[in-house]
Amino acid sequence: MQKFFLDDEKPKFSSRNKFAKMGLTFDDMKLVYDQNATVKSADIDVSTVLTPTLKLNLPLISAAMDTVTEARFATELAKLGGLGVIHKNMTIAEQADEVKRVKTATFDSDIYPNAATDNQGRLLVAGAVGVTSDTVKRVEAMAAVGVDAIVLDSAHGHSEGVLRKVSEVRDAFPTLNIIAGNIATTSGAAALYDAGADVVKIGIGPGSICTTRVVAGIGVPQLSAVRDAAEEGARRGKAIIADGGAKTAKDITKALAAGGNAVMLGSMFSGTEETPGDVFEDNGKRYKTYRGMGSIAAMEAGSKDRYFQGEVNEAKKMVPEGIEARVAYKGALADVLAKMMTAIREEMAKMDESSVADLSKNGRMTRDISVIDYEAEVAHVKKSYTMPTF
Fold first, then answer.
1. 241 occurs within a structural domain
2. Helices 249-257 & 222-236, crossing angle to 10 degrees?
3. Cα–Cα 20 to 30 A to 374, which of 123, 177, 240, 252?
4. How far apart are CA 45 and CA 35, in angstroms?
5. Which residue range is the domain that position 233 belongs to?
6. Is 166 within a domain?
7. Quick one: which residues bind NAD(+) (predicted)?
8. Is 153 labeled as ligand-binding?
9. d(C-alpha 49, C-alpha 195), whole Å
């Protein structure tokens, strides 16, 4: 694999060697086109395999956010070939019911020939859990209604509590697909795989409304993090998911070229008709709400354990690592996804890559001169702001 760093040596981070390693993100890298490309966009295989029982016909997964993924959105995304992750800001019974709604949804295979389904022809769906005392009970409830994967979600996946919880869930559910994260290093990926994760999720702070980079000063530029984790995954024959930072179809293509087997999206799916929440108007324009799971509102609703603040019961004492925004209403997911996938296919065709698997393996990118951490720049005005449409 092509390395993103100037030196092959990768010394550990330390106070004595702060700049040992150059990290690169989306705006630092350019895709390399093949002037002799013969692949046609219509012939490109955009399917991906995360595990033997988790095969998607689109390399796209929706974020487990309470303004993005509930049953309605997850059902539509699965019918179109992707995977939705039901968020955990609800009771155990409510989350299990959301999963059940997806698993029992009916659809016309002639209209949705690329639907992502299990071996019984039911739509695929995943559910998010955190590091809490009721994690196993939550998993058990979702497993009982047929959930296809559990996403054990934390802002710091390479931590003792998360690793213990992954092992606990693995021991209790030996055959269940476990996706765990988030991490941003090779060692983090290795630790989660060793703990029992089938798939590892990469991304510390790159999300458009995540402020971890600003608040905590922690994170690794996303493409470097993806590449490092991908190398570990490749050694083990396991998959990774690039989570966060993608703003365009070209960014999604870069995340796949860096070694991602799939890309998790929040902001690019936000504002679609099927996401939770009502459409509202302001000055003649239509919007929906979109908020980071590290925002005060989301943490009060149930996500505070993700940010290691599970014992904090007063909002004024919480340290937010996300913000709340409004996004332009985008219309039906099917229409947004059609444009997105057309653009991704066109990028892949220009690179002469005939499949997502080949794109991830070949890594056709070159470094640009920019080294600014754009991922840390969420918003210059820390209040509700308007996100751009896709």
1. yes
2. 40
3. 240
4. 21
5. 31-366+376-387
6. yes
7. 153-155, 203-205
8. yes
9. 21
- Token code pair at residue 367: 């470094």
* Confidence band for 156, pLDDT divided at 50, 70 and 90: confident
Q: Which residues pair with 289 in a beta bridge?
A: 326
Whole-angstrom distance, CA of residue 257 vs CA of residue 164? 32
How many Cα atoms sit within 13 Å of 185 on the Cβ side? 14
Active-site amino acid positions: 210, 306
Task: Tell me if 121 is assigned to a ligand binding site.
Answer: no
Residue 384 has pLDDT above 90, yes or no: no
**Per the domain annotation, does 131 fall within a domain?**
yes
**HEC assignment per residue over 99-135:** HHHHHCCCCCCCCCCCCCECCCCCECCEEEECCCCCH
Question: Which of 226, 224, 220, 176 shows the shortest CA–CA distance to 196?
Answer: 176
Backbone angles phi, psi at 313, to 5 degrees: -110, -5
Q: What is the per-residue pLDDT across 196-225, written as a single tens digit (0 to 9) for each?
A: 999 999 998 665 555 554 555 566 889 999
Q: Give a yes or no: residue 71 inside a domain.
A: yes
294 annotated among ligand-binding-site residues: yes
Residue 210 marked as a ligand binder: yes
Rounded to two decimals, the pTM is 0.83
181 is in an annotated binding site: no
Count the alpha carbons within 13 Å of 231 in the hemisphere toward its beta carbon: 14
Q: What is the CATH number of the domain that holds 199?
A: 3.20.20.70
